[in-house]
């Protein structure tokens, strides 16, 4: 009998074929397997709209691999979709039949609008942006643009241009010149211009990009130690570097992987045109896409009673990690309660990060994560694990701040007596509040959660508790003494009973 414990999404794209296999664990989605093959289906498109034999053979070979991988998964838990190139060759019924027989599963050739809607759901269900989102997915033969908010897509468009087809049209000789890149940008701009007005009213929308082009940009930025918020100026400078290389075979940009070189410039030209026509000031990469949208649609349609998925993406992720590593949820909730109380008392006096609540909740849940490995250096273990764990809902910038805060909370739950100190004042302020919250909860009992009063004067904190509290709690008092002792000027901490 085939297993119903797993779900498989198969995306037959114009550049690559992808398979994603997952299972539901502790209320969240755990990736079990990812398979990706550069099939370059769009590269085999002939002028008459047919597909050459080489591309067909590449596709069938990949589908044989996919078929073998999913043969033990219940068919009702598998969905396979074809996108732009398969839409263009849908009349080739003989090839579609061969492909389905090879895979051993039906292939749905979805419309551009359905592709866009599914991409949006994949991103909405794996990110945590409350504001409007403008989503861009530059595929091999089509580019999807979606404006939405929450889980609702408001404007959908699938444009007839992609990194593979643009390579064929503008860079087929392998040359990268100012003239060819400008022609590629101009052609893309003409297509975008037809729908640009539909996206003019998107005040406050965050712009997110999904696809290999955006993944490549993120890898380049990380390799160079640069911000992960991409600007049009940064993209233009990157294109100038590519032009200076002269040819795709000589394209050497720090951080650009070899397997992304062939269609990177064509995708970059499309993105620059999008920024120009839609007046995009900054954008960032995201991990969700079509495959994740397919998975969540499968989960939503499943009749399995135990497959309930939390819609708060970050909370779902934190709960999944807590369940997987047997973390103490009660302790996390106590720490968060105290941290929120202290934060409210300091918020008018200290500059804090914009997303303070998300950071406090994440640290409250994750600060004991390292104990699942060892008590010794537990905070360092937690920081390492957060760096490498799959954390849907937490982008690279949030993850970086969470790691810094975890490192800054060292020495409370473990034997690391040298916590790191963040130089950014807003993050350092939040770090000090979180350290106090974790410290005040070390008795691990709700009865200890008295109503603390915290006053702020520059970098000095003064903590007050009800009369007799500190005398009745010598363990906590000793922790506060140690906390005060490890601070260096101009920071300080004092505490006293309320009169």
UniProtKB/TrEMBL annotation:
Residues 315-483 form the Ppx/GppA phosphatase C-terminal domain. Its EC number is 3.6.1.40. GO terms for molecular function: guanosine-5'-triphosphate,3'-diphosphate diphosphatase activity. Keywords: Hydrolase. Gene3D superfamilies: 3.30.420.40, Exopolyphosphatase. Domain 2, Hypothetical protein af1432. InterPro entries: ATPase_NBD, GppA/Ppx_hydrolase, Ppx_GppA_C, Ppx_GppA_N, PyroPPase_GppA_Ppx. It comes from Aliidiomarina sedimenti. This is Guanosine-5'-triphosphate,3'-diphosphate pyrophosphatase.
């Amino acid at each position: 009998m085939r297993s119903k414990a797993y779900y498989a999404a198969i995306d037959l794209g114009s550049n690559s074929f992808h398979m994603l296999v997952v299972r539901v664990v502790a209320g969240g989605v755990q990736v079990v397997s990812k398979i990706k093959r550069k099939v370059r289906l769009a590269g085999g498109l002939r002028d008459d709209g047919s597909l050459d034999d080489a591309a067909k053979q590449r596709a069938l070979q990949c589908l044989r691999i996919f078929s073998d991988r999913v043969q033990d998964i219940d068919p009702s838990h598998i969905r396979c979709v074809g996108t732009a190139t398969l839409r263009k060759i849908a009349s080739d019924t003989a090839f579609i039949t061969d492909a389905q027989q090879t895979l051993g599963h039906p292939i749905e050739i979805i419309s551009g609008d359905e592709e866009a809607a599914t991409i949006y759901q994949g991103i909405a269900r794996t990110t945590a942006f409350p504001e409007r989102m403008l989503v861009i997915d530059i595929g091999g033969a089509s580019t999807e643009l979606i404006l939405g908010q929450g889980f609702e897509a408001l404007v959908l468009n699938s444009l007839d241009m992609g990194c593979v087809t643009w390579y064929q049209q503008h860079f087929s000789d392998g040359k990268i010149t100012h003239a060819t890149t400008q022609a590629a940008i101009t052609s893309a701009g003409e297509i975008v211009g037809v729908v640009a007005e539909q996206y003019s009213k998107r005040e406050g929308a965050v712009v997110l990009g999904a696809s290999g082009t955006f993944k490549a940009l993120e890898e380049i930025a990380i390799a160079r130690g640069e911000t992960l918020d991409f600007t049009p100026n940064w993209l233009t400078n990157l294109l100038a570097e590519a032009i200076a290389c002269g040819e795709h075979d000589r394209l050497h940009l720090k951080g650009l992987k070899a397997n992304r070189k062939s269609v990177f410039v064509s995708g970059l030209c499309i993105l620059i045109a999008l920024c120009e026509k839609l007046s995009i000031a900054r954008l960032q990469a995201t991990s969700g896409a079509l495959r994740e949208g397919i998975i969540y649609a499968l989960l939503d349609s499943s009749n399995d009673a135990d497959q309930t998925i939390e819609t708060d993406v970050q909370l779902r992720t934190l709960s999944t990690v807590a369940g997987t590593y047997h973390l103490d949820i009660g302790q996390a909730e106590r720490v968060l309660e105290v941290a929120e109380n202290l934060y409210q008392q300091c918020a008018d006096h200290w500059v804090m990060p914009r997303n303070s609540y998300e950071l406090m909740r994440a640290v409250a849940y994750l600060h004991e994560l390292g104990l699942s490995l060892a008590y010794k250096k537990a905070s360092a273990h937690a920081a390492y694990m957060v760096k490498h764990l799959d954390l849907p809902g937490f982008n690279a910038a949030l993850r970086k701040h969470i790691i810094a805060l975890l490192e800054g909370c060292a020495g409370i739950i473990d034997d690391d007596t040298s916590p790191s100190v963040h130089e950014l004042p807003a993050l350092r302020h939040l770090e000090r509040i979180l350290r106090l919250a974790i410290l005040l909860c070390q008795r691990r009992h709700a009865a200890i959660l008295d109503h603390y009063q915290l006053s702020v004067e520059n970098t000095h904190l003064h903590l007050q508790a009800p009369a007799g509290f500190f005398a009745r709690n010598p363990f906590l008092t000793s922790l506060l003494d140690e906390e005060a002792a490890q601070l260096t000027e101009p920071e300080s901490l004092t505490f006293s009973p309320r009169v």
